[in-house]
Design goal:
Elements (H helix, E strand, L loop, with lengths): L2 H12 L4 E2 L2 E2 L1 H30 L4 H17 L1 H12 L1 H19 L7 E6 L2 E8 L6 E6 L2 E7 L5 E4 L5 E5 L4 E6 L2 H31 L8 H29 L2 H20 L20 H10 L1 H12 L9 H7 L3 H24 L2 H24 L5 H9 E2 L1 E2 L3 E2 L7 H23 L6 H23 L8 E2 H16 L2 H11 L5 H25 L4 E2 L2 E2 L2 H36 L5
Parallel strand pairs: 10-13
Antiparallel strand pairs: 1-2, 3-4, 3-9, 4-5, 5-6, 6-7, 7-8, 11-12, 14-15
Length: 591
């Protein structure tokens, strides 16, 4: 933070200036800016997995892998965006440029072309596939020698081809039936360009809007945690409406309408910063030593990274998992370039920053940075499991969830992500009041304890859904409210880690690299997103034309994966709970 910013923050926090619910009034504009930005992002995210699976007809492995890679890059680029803002642009200029890039990305996704045409490879020969019926009644038929044979998956992963009388005409051995889609290479590339623009824009926007919020509060201001919790509610207030409206538009009008609404939300976000009427003057400004002539060079450099990111996406889509028995070394060496880049950046970046802190900071500053890095590692585990929401949980909702609401109407699989946002909006004020109340009594849990509770909570959410799966009906579908219960538990866990984590970074970081540390925080989430894609790939099932071939196999697969990650998270949370006291000592009174 520059001297000008620091003085502004102290003046606002320490004087009797105009306030907004007991906080600096500038928080209201930043709250609204983030709300509209998240409106666009989460509206797009609610559509993306289903768009890849149902419009482009990618298989589960490609769909969840591409989704995980995209969201990983979305959280990796803030590491660079935070650094550029700290050194050259300032947070405010970075936010505005990022908003424009993201809006362009959403608009680009509006152009998807015609839906891919399904086909099936059987014993190495390609056959046309036709879909009949709508919704849950939709069935797939392979056209072989002019005869339409119904495709039915079996529990042993073989595939039966049934005649019009329901009798099995042919059984295809496991692994010999491969479904695919004939899609336009141009529109596939255009879709990847859209994701690339969003990725770059988010790198400039995401870390720096949070940094501006942190600059509103002077060091030691106990309102900081509550302020970030309010700010975090803005994130989910935006996603609440977009995760209802964007999927609804996609269903009733077309995919383009859902993505178009997300783009409009992003433009609203940009306008709030661009036309702030001087309300944010003194916050997020360019460092006093920075040269403004470099701005255009930075913007041009960002655009020049588009081919690089496109190459990473293409490499990710062509990835083939290494053969079983290759070991952990073989697995890591066999990762696509994006995987190597993410793990390499994290494994090199975290120790490097700690070494820099050791030589350039005081003993206390180094220990605080050490505590921050330890919590960042546990943060990675949390988001790996939590971010199944956009991939495996969305596909679970589409395939193995009864989406009826009290028998009155049905919602779409994309709209189930609304539950998380709804619970955050409803519970964020409660948690803000609770943290303030506990702090006044001197009994507020430490940050490490909050992280531990979050990890155990995300595991408990998956185990709750597994319990509900035991009550699935003969159609192998779980009641919607079991999925809603998972999101309720996950939302409470999220409120224990995400807004607290953002605040923690601004308090534990050495002041002159707070932007970079915010980037490292998002880097940890980036690694988590990539690993989340790998976890979701484990839950992959056979699909034809975007539909699973056997719902029982699908349900059993999801239950096995959710059970494993649920208990793993609970155990890791317990380990952190035991480590909470020594980590707290390293924090030197930061709460």
């Amino acid at each position: 933070m520059s001297k000008k910013q620091t003085n502004a923050a102290v003046a606002t926090a320490g004087s009797g200036g105009e306030e907004w619910f007991g906080h600096p009034r500038q928080l209201a504009r930043l709250f609204t800016t983030e709300m509209w930005e998240r409106f666009g992002f989460y509206g797009m995210r609610a559509l993306l997995t289903l768009y890849l699976a149902e419009h482009f007809l990618f298989d589960d492995t490609t769909t969840t892998g591409l989704y995980g890679g995209f969201t990983a890059l979305v959280y990796l680029t803030p590491l660079i965006g935070g650094l550029l803002a700290d050194r050259y642009l300032g947070s405010k200029r970075s936010v505005k440029f990022g908003a424009i890039m993201m809006a362009l990305g959403y608009f680009t996704l509006c152009f998807g072309g015609d839906a891919a045409k399904p086909y099936a490879m059987i014993d190495g020969q390609r056959y046309e596939v036709v879909n009949k019926g709508e919704g849950d009644a939709r069935q797939q038929f392979a056209v072989i020698s002019g005869q339409e044979l119904k495709i039915k998956g079996n529990e042993d992963r073989t595939v039966s081809l049934l005649g019009s009388d329901g009798a099995e005409v042919r059984r295809v051995a496991a692994g010999e039936f491969k479904a695919g889609g004939e899609r336009s290479s141009f529109f596939t590339m255009l879709m990847l360009v859209g994701l690339t623009l969003i990725t770059i824009g988010n790198g400039f926007f995401k870390p720096n809007i949070s940094t501006i919020v942190g600059s509103l509060y002077a060091q030691g201001d106990r309102r900081r945690d509550a302020g970030f919790t309010i700010f975090y509610m803005g994130i989910n207030l935006g996603s609440l409406f977009s995760q209802l409206l964007c999927p609804w538009l996609a269903m009733t009008v077309g995919w383009w309408a859902g993505f178009g609404l997300a783009a409009l939300g992003m433009l609203f976000s940009w306008s709030l910063i661009q036309f702030d009427g001087g309300r944010l003057s003194g916050y997020g400004e360019r460092p006093e030593t920075a040269d403004s002539s470099r701005d255009m060079l930075i913007y041009a450099g960002a655009l020049l990274t588009i081919p690089v990111i496109l190459f990473l996406f293409s490499n990710l889509m062509s990835y083939v998992a290494p053969a079983a028995g290759s070991g952990i070394t073989g697995y890591i060496m066999g990762l696509p370039l994006m995987g190597k880049m993410l793990f390499g950046t994290f494994l090199v970046g975290v120790p490097s920053i700690l070494i820099w802190s050791y030589f350039n900071g005081s003993r206390v500053e180094f220990q605080m940075m050490l505590a921050a890095m330890a919590l960042i590692v546990f943060n990675t585990v949390f988001w790996t499991l939590f971010e199944q929401a956009g991939s495996s949980l969305t596909l679970f909702a589409d395939r193995n969830t009864d989406l009826s609401v009290f028998g009155l109407f049905n919602i779409s699989a994309g709209q189930t992500q609304f539950f998380n946002a709804f619970f955050i909006v409803a519970l964020a004020p409660v948690f803000s009041i609770m943290w303030n109340g506990l702090a006044k009594r001197g009994i507020e849990p430490s940050i490490p304890v909050k992280f531990a509770v979050a990890l155990m909570g995300v595991g408990a959410g998956f185990l709750f859904l597994v319990w509900g799966a035991a009550f699935a009906g003969p159609d192998f579908k779980v009641g919607l409210w079991w999925l809603a219960g998972l999101y309720l538990i996950h939302s409470m866990a999220e409120l224990c880690i995400s807004p607290v984590g953002l605040s923690m970074i601004t308090k534990l970081s050495i002041a002159r690299i707070v932007g970079m540390m915010m980037g490292v925080w998002f880097l940890s989430i980036s690694v988590a997103q990539y690993v989340a894609g790998i976890v979701a790939q484990v839950a992959s099932v056979e699909t034809v034309g975007g539909q699973v071939t056997n719902l029982q196999v699908s349900l059993n697969t999801y239950v096995d994966v959710f059970t494993t990650i649920g208990w793993t998270s609970v155990i890791i949370g317990g380990v952190l709970f035991l480590l909470a006291k020594p980590i707290k000592k390293l924090m030197h009174g930061v709460n």
